[in-house]
Design brief:
The complex is a heterodimer of chains A (282) and B (352). With 282 residues, chain A is α+β, with helices and mostly antiparallel strands. Chain A is built from five helices and eleven strands. Among the domains of chain A are: 29 residues; 162 residues, Lipocalin, CATH 2.40.128. Chain B has a single domain, classed as Ribonuclease Z/Hydroxyacylglutathione hydrolase-like (Metallo-beta-lactamase, Chain A), CATH 3.60.15.10. Chain B has twelve helices and twelve strands. In chain B, the strands form two sheets. In chain B, strands 1-2-3-4-5-6-7 form a seven-stranded mixed β-sheet. A five-stranded mixed β-sheet of chain B has the order 8-9-10-11-12. In chain B, helix 7 packs antiparallel against helix 8 and helix 8 crosses helix 11. The chains are: A alpha+beta (282), B alpha/beta (352).
Chain lengths: 282, 352
Amino acid sequence: MRTTTWSRLTATVLGILLLLTGRLASAQMDLSGQWANRLHEDQPWRGPGQEIGEFQGLPINAEARMKAESWTASIYTIPERQCIPFAADMGYTIGNMRIWEEKDAASQEVIAWHQHNEWQAQERTIWMDGRPHPPEWAPHTWQGFSTGEWDGNTLIVTTTHLKMAYLERNGIPRSDQATLVERYMRHGTYLTIMQAVYDPVYTTEPFVRTRGFVWAPNQELNAYPCRPTVEIARPKHEVPHVLPGVNPHLDAAAVRFKVPTIALPGGAETMYPEFQLKLTKP
Amino acid sequence: MRPHHIAAYAVVALALPSSFVSTAAQIGVPQSPDIDITDVNVLPLQGKVTLLVGPGGLESTSANVIMQSSDDAVVLVDTGRGDKTDRYIAAIQRISRKPIRFIINTQAAVDHTGGNEALARSGRPFGGRAAGAGFLLPDQTSGATIIAHESVLKALSAPARQPPVAFAAWPSETYFTDDHELFNGEAIQIFHAAGITDGDSIVFFRRSDVISTGDIFSTLTYPRIDARAGGTIAGEIAALNQILDLAVPREKQEGGTYIVPGHGRVADEADVVEYRDMIVIIRDRVQDLIKNGRSLAQIKAAKVSFDYDRRYSASDWTGDQFVESVFATLTPSPQRAQSPATNGGQRGSPAR
């Protein structure tokens, strides 16, 4: 009968729509697989790295500046610091990674996304099951505690319980009070991760950066074992640092790369285009 | 200038609040509904060790209390300020029905020893009497044994101490050597350290791999060095290094040995390294200025702790007060006399 056929057709269309809707609501985007890091963005900062005292474009405060000006790379040579990996907010600086999902066997819902970064073997877990963050008295880790939720096809990840670490590799500090908010955006074979660091101790505005990856199904990740050892004969428990006012390297970027000295101290102002007007003033 | 950075900021501005929010709470990080911040909260650490966080969480005026349990007994490290001891006892009994037999005080300050009397009375000493036995040893009515360095006993029993501390709250077993030990299902080592006072103890639960530091280490404030109670900056740094020598992290230099500060969150070696480095750096800055003939006022004006103040300066123990305490123990007596007392002459953590 015509009526019956029409009803069946309507039911079928509705069924397909429901399936599609349900799929969109729950699946969002598959992030799993091997991802190869693309290093062209910020290459000078991610490769050779910034000079000491080169803080332009960073929303740091005076406290961060003072701490970074006391910093020396020799700090990495003490055994207690040799195997410290990049924290979550620095983790994508270099290194390829693998992402895989963990599903609940009964419901097939995603419980967590896991990541392994080849460089320094950083491992992250992003909990997707709605669990709360630990209490404030719980331990902090390099990768922190992360939870995620989908906003359309974008995975928004919030990370707390981070250890004290660096915003950049020339000693700019990021405190253990910081919160990291990330957006994972996949477009076909490209994955972009945008990170915003909110640090009430050392920044005056969110520090934002993006990192790009390309899907690489044939990729294999190497292990990254690390065991500390004494590298330099020095008194036990010595702490390398530079006293205020005597750091001879703070103008290195101005000398080597002609970075205007007015920009070197950084601060939120130096992030914005308007700052260029200052540079052109005599 | 980093063009990518500006572009990225423009993108995030569409997705995030326009004004700068900074803390996890402001950003809206989901918190556990099971946590009642007004009560004593329990955090199992590892092995046989559990952390009891006082009412108020990290804002608590009570020091952290460590509980270690075995088939024989419960051992506590510190007892809090002495309020809500019933809540501490209830929390302990939810984990173990064994009696509290030993309490270890890491120092004499009231936020570490205030609950001594009540918690000791709720327990009993090691030993007892079998049915029909003819003697009683030790006195089972005396409560748990309280262990501390002898300086803690001197401080708590000092006639001038105000308010006076009840006899039942005094340490009943003291040591005056470099270390002391105990066994409760695992070896428990107590190391003397002259850090913020001359009678600090570091407690190491060997199999559980947990260290309790007392106020030698804090994740909240600068160390409250009390020069009048024998604390020194040199001793404080030596004590932090002693903790680092005991701790062994897992791979990636995190976890492994857990380290519980007197106040603040659970930590590990990397956190203590960061704290030790800060203390050494500030000490070196003060020392350098002293060598150059600077006065305390000039050193304070130089803001030698500025880069750490936003993180560690507290309303009752500021960066300036910490610098004063460093100066006081780095300078000879005539100069030290210019430094104000940190604690009105009372031993232990000032202003707590």
